[in-house]
Each structure stands twice: as C-alpha cells, then as structure tokens.
Amino acid sequence: METNLVVEGIKFMFLGMGAVFLFLALMIVMMNIMSYIIHRFFPEPQASVKSTVAPEEDNRKIVAAITAAIAHHRQG
Amino acid sequence: MKNSIIKLLALFMLIGFGTVYANDVQVEVQTTTVTEVQIDAQAPEAAAKSNHMEETYKTQPFMEMIDGFLHSTGISALAEPRADEMNAHGEPISDFHKSWGRVIMILITFLLFYLAIAKGFEPLLLLPIGFGGLLANIPLAGIGGDTGFLGIIYHMGLSNQLFPILIFMGVGAMTDFGPLLSNPKTALLGGAAQFGIFGTLVGAVALSQYTTIFDFTLQQASAISIIGGADGPTSIFIATNLAPELLGAIAVASYSYMAMVPIIQPPIMKALTTDAERRIKMTTLRHVSRLEKLVFPILVLVLAILILPDATPLIGAFMFGNFLKESGVVDRLSDTMQNALINIVTIFLGLAVGSKLAADQFLVPDTLAILLLGIIAFSVGTAAGVIMAKIMNLFPGHKVNPLIGSAGVSAVPMAARVSNKVGMEYDRTNMLLMHAMGPNVAGVIGSAVAAGILMSLFR
User: Fold this and answer.
1) A35 and A52 both lie in a single domain
2) Which of residues 185-204 of B touch A (CB under 8 A)?
3) How close, in Å, is residue A60 to chain B by CA atoms?
4) What is the number of structural domains in chain A?
C-alpha cells in the first residue's frame, strides 16, 4: 500500500474525462463533416422537391409531391 | 319392442365383456413377457449390482429415516446450519450467512418484487434478479452453485461478459441517433455526465486510503463508480472484468438507481438551474437523412477502433444493432434483436445476476458502501451534465436548456423523459424530449468509452 491511491485516482480521472471528451469531440467534428458531405453530394430526393414549389399547376408534379410527402411521412 | 332392446343391450354387454377380457389377457401376456425379458437381461449383472447397492444404501430403522428426512428439511437447515455446507465457490460460510442471512436475503428479494410490481421500478430486470436471488438463497439445494442451474447460466454468459454484449446489441437496434445527428454538440453533455464515474472513483479511493470505513482496491473502486454511468450492461461488463466478487451488489445498485431516475434527478436539476434557464426553448431539430443515420454507426465504430479498441466490444455490438436497424433491409433481424433476443437475454442476465445475491456474498459491509457510492456517482453525473449545459450557454450559438444536461447519464430513455417532464412543469409548451434524446444516446457512447478506458488502464 505504498502507492498513493488518491493520486492514482486523480490520474484516472483526468485521463478518463480527457479521453471521453476527446472521443465525443472527434465524433461531433466527424458528424458535422459527414452531414456536410451528405447534404452537399447526396441530397435526399424530397429535399429537391421541396425547393421547387411547382410554378405551373401540373397534375404530375402534384402527384410527385404527394408521393414524396407520403414517403417522408413513412420514414418517420 | 322391449325384448329386442333387452337383447340388444345384452349383446353389447357380451361384446363389451369379451373385448375387455381379451384386452386383459393380452396385457397380461405382454407384461409377463416383458418382465421375463428384463429379468433375463438383468440376471448376469444382478450379482455385481447388489454389491454396489450395499455400499450406497443401507437399510435403516424407520425412525432413523424419519429423523434423516427431518434433518434435510429447509426449516432445520435454516435453524441449525450444517457445518459441511459450502458456498457457490466451495468455500466455507459463516453460520449467520447460512441461517438468518438467508432469511434476510429472501425478505430483500420480496422487497424487490414489491418495488417491481407495485411501484413499477424496472420490473423487466428487478423481477428476474429478485427471483434469482430467492432461488440462490435456498439452503441445501445449491441452485447458485457450479452445478445448479443458476450457476450454469452464470457461467454461460455472465462470467464471460456475453450477456451484457448481447443486451447492447438489442439496445443499439432500439436506438435512434436522429436527435443527436441533428444537434451534434449535445453529445458533450453525454460526456460531462461521465464525470459521475471518475469523480466517484477519486472519492472511493480517497475514503479507502484515509479512512477505515472501507478498503477498496483501485479495480474495485472503478467497478463501483461505473454505476455513475447509469448503464446496467456496462456496469456488469466492467464488474465481471475488474471485480467479479462485487458483481451482485453493483448490478443491483445500478439497476435500482436507473429505476429511480425520476426520483433522484429532478431535485438536483432544479437546484442547479434558474427559472429562466428552465424555460429556454430550443430550436426545432432539422431533418436527418437516412444516409446520415446509416453512416453514423460505422463512423463511431471507426473512431473507436482508431482511438480506443478496448471499448469496441461494447460499441461494436451497439453499432451492429443500430446498423442493422438503419439499413432497412433486414427488418427480421433487427426485429429479433429488439424483441426476442433482448427478452431472452434479459431473463438469463437477471437470473444470473440474482445468483450473486446469495447471503454470503451480498450481506457484507461492502454492499452498503457500494449502494452509497453508487447513488453519489449517479447524482454527480446528473449535476455534471446540467453544469456542462450551463457552460455551453456561455458560448455564442443556439442556447441549450440545462434540463437536458441531466439526460447525459445513459438510462435511455428514462432520463430524457425526466428532462421533458421537468421542463413541462415550468412551460407546458416546451417539449424537450427529442432534444434530450441527443445527450441521452451520447451518454451511452460516453459510458462505453469510459468503460473502455478503465479496461485499458488495468490491462
């Protein structure tokens, strides 16, 4: 029992909290990068439907919009 | 007319007797042949066997037999413990643990039943654990021993950490990372709540070092403080790795505190926040695409592989379950993980943990210390999450309601529901549930990382 357990515990604490935060911070950075890439290069189909609000009231476009809305709803 | 009826009846009776008689004869013939055959077959061995029989069985006077039976009843085993009865590890047990200890433990399991059924505290786990504890405290039967069925279940999946991993798979298949993906910075709250683990670790070793109240090694202190992660499977995983002798108390403490989240957390949350902070409304969450949800599990797993391979058993199983769910093409498998598999494993896990509630292992001073340190770890974790949310509000950007900080301890989804409920008390229109799910699932990842670090430090 020569080693000071409290000092060991404090070392554990700093290392542990440091690693947890490092991991989660890296995770946040990677998540942001991933979201950016996915939204930039692989946008979801319904996103484009939303942006082009049909200028001419064409039946087929309305059907497409409804289908997309249903798909979106089903996805949750 | 009458005549014909009588004749008919007589005919039936004749036929009936005839068949019955014939059957009897047949049966008799069969039995005699069978017994003859058996006797023939046994005849040569009979002499050899009779010697063996004499060794194991002696004829006794009837009174002695009654006396022997009375000594093998549970009442006499509890009242006058046998000197030769050993515990599950084949070590001698004190008389107290064989008699009153067992009675006390059985009463404690009744208390667990009450909490689970009448109060609704985590019944899915407390009932199997409680019943396992009841069975493990039966004298003479040795159900919790190596050859008893609880002992077999324990060795099947708990001592080798299989069950917690399987539970993690199921939890992964039930988890939706959408709220976390739409507001990534809330993951920091899940990190801060892990301070409950490491803060308590320091406290536990300090008390062991400077006082004589208890005497925990660094391994034991780590296994106890992981209760602060509020994650049952992780606690069991670490306890079986670092301090298997404390497993029963740690598992019971961990699950009971998870069940008591709605009682423990709100006072701490209210004490640390101002009225204005509790009314903060958070911006609505953006839509998360399917591809993001699909890539996320792989992303976290790759990070774990690169930074902390020791955490990969837990994170790997968790992300496997989640990946199957988000892939959308194996609904059958993800459905099995979420329901059938996790239910079966929960039964086994509960019983196996219950087998550690044997009096000689549970009724020791250490258990009280574990329960005490566990609740401290839990409270510190909750407080750290709330304080972290307040620190984040000092920086520019969208404000965070500090009430969701408490959800950074895992306890999915109970902790998030508590955040939502406390928020609603102050503003009926403030729906915090989805915002709190972010730190909540980040807390699961955070405690798995903390577990991985503890494992790597003792490597």
Assistant:
1) no
2) 185, 187-188, 190-191, 194-195, 197-199, 201-202, 204
3) 25
4) 2
3-state SS, residue A62 = helix
Q: Do B204 and A15 touch (CB under 8 A)?
A: no
Q: What is the pLDDT of residue A62?
A: 81
Domain boundaries, chain B: 176-336+361-457
- Binary contact (B449, A19; C-beta < 8 A): yes
Mutation target for A interface from B182, B219, B286, B291: give the one with most A CBs within 10 A: B291
Q: What is the pLDDT of residues B199-226, one digit of tens each?
A: 999 989 988 888 877 789 999 999 999 9
User: Smallest Cβ distance to B198: which of A12, A23, A32?
Assistant: A12
The number of beta carbons lying within 10 Å of the beta carbon of residue B90 is: 8
CB-closest option in A12, A27, A75 to B300 = A27
Q: Which domain holds residue A25?
A: 1-42
Residues whose CB falls within 8 Å of the CB of residue B165, separated by 6 or more in sequence, listed in order: B233, B237, B313, B314, B317
Write the DSSP symbol of residue A51: H
Please indicate, yes or no, whether residues A7 and A37 belong to a single structural domain of this protein.
Answer: yes
The ipTM (two decimal places) reads 0.80
pLDDT digits (tens, 9 = 90+) for B419-452: 999 999 999 999 999 999 999 999 999 999 999 9
B348: CB partners within 8 A, 6+ apart: B153, B156, B157, B163
Q: How many CB atoms lie within 10 A of CB B36?
A: 10
* Cβ contact B388:B408 at 8 Å: yes
Residues of A whose CB is below 8 A from B218: 5, 8-9, 12
Is the domain of A53 the same as that of A31?
Answer: no
CB pairs under 8 A between A and B: 116
CB atoms within 10 A of CB B34: 10
Identify from B219, B222, B293, B300 which residue to disrupt to test chain A contact, counting A C-beta atoms within 10 A and taking the largest count: B300
Taking CB atoms and an 8 Å limit, are B292 and A38 in contact across chains? yes
Do A20 and A37 reside in the same domain of the chain?
yes
| Pair A28, A62 in one domain | no
DSSP class of A4: -
